[in-house]
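Box 3.1. Reading complex inputs
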Amino acid sequence: MKVLIVYAHPEPRSLNGALRNFAVDRLQSAGHEVIVSDLYAMGWKAVVDSADFLNHETGQPLKVEAASKRAYEAEAQSADIAAEQRKLFWADVLILQFPMWWFSMPAILKGWVDRVYAYGLAYGVGEHSDRRWGDRYGEGTFKGKRAMLIVTTGGWASHYSERGVNGRMEDLLFPINHGVLYYPGFDVLPPYVLYRTGKYDDARHRQTLAELGERLDTLATTAPIPYRMQNGGDYEIPSMELKEALSAGRQGLDIHLA
Amino acid sequence: MKVLIVYAHPEPRSLNGALRNFAVDRLQSAGHEVIVSDLYAMGWKAVVDSADFLNHETGQPLKVEAASKRAYEAEAQSADIAAEQRKLFWADVLILQFPMWWFSMPAILKGWVDRVYAYGLAYGVGEHSDRRWGDRYGEGTFKGKRAMLIVTTGGWASHYSERGVNGRMEDLLFPINHGVLYYPGFDVLPPYVLYRTGKYDDARHRQTLAELGERLDTLATTAPIPYRMQNGGDYEIPSMELKEALSAGRQGLDIHLA
């Protein structure tokens, strides 16, 4: 398989750097092709602005959605954006690796999503009718590809558990797993999350490599998170509310699991 | 009151720009002092790196948490970070205004959080014992101050409703409201969210200004989201799991509401 790792950590001599290197070696040893987008090393520009859209008319108001659509259609995006999009088309599997900062991605990775996910590529795809509401959530450009997060955090696992004070990790990651990955069509594998990185030793590192290695070995076969397809009959159109009979009486984001 | 608006939109001639100007006028007319951090206009650097920490030794590995702690303690942070922190100390109310991009903040605003929220200021505050687990979630540096989001999105309200396909807006914003604002001590007011900005006309704009104006007029009195205090007896220490008897049988992030 072809694996794209988008990696967002400022220090290569870090635990994240070690895990990234391990992942690349492990995947290559298994015969996979790997490309790493090392955002810090690339000096990735994090901020959407008019320079992203080469056909944006100077002095005109920047309407991001419209500008993105025009630039994507005309192949007039800045070169760094187009290069990342080519990697996405190339890849069978997308891995986003990052330390959790303030319960989400570091800004540099959010800026990769904001800029690379063009209108016509990741959103604004497909037809709207009484039976479909665009190609998103289980359909879309990246349908057939898989994606997975590798996340590190200093917090304890129990603080992120079902009733942990930080909020459940699955819920904190929902905007990314469901909103960034499932939206444009990826099958999203359960994330690999490493907790309490401040208390880390050789024994834990061996365990981490064993667990992460297992996850990398099974990228092709691990069952994805069973998010409900938007256009599969579970949601009313166009209100896009889950039909009454489904997940009845339940609360929380898990209602969107089939 | 003193109000800090941190504003993240690339185009001043936009709906967000109009709402920002409206908010400033409305607050000033009511006698409040207002400072706007217009992140795009400031050319805000979104990405944490070693340049943020003036006392970081060149060539040494960058450990972000430790570097942030050392720089904050020694007053050796880059000037742009220190300036934003002074504004936070000055303010009685913090407003974050942004268009929702990919179910979260634009990268430039995430980078404001990542960089301004230093160790010793926003996290790593307070003592850990069998009765307390640091000053966070209802306690901390910003206790006594209030915060509120102003968010715009192209999506329909029903798509973000209790059972909407995007996930419920309250849950999507939990990493920000609870994780970014409540964590260092802010009382967090319900967000003002404007939906379906692609279908917008004068009538809707009048309604928006009336609603937003009302929210701005009542910043001091609106009841905050009733998140549970971490050290108030509702969570086990140190596992930080919600005690069994509380929100029993319920699922989802609302278990963290008192």
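In summary: Residues 2-223 of chain A form a domain with the Rossmann fold fold (CATH 3.40.50.360).
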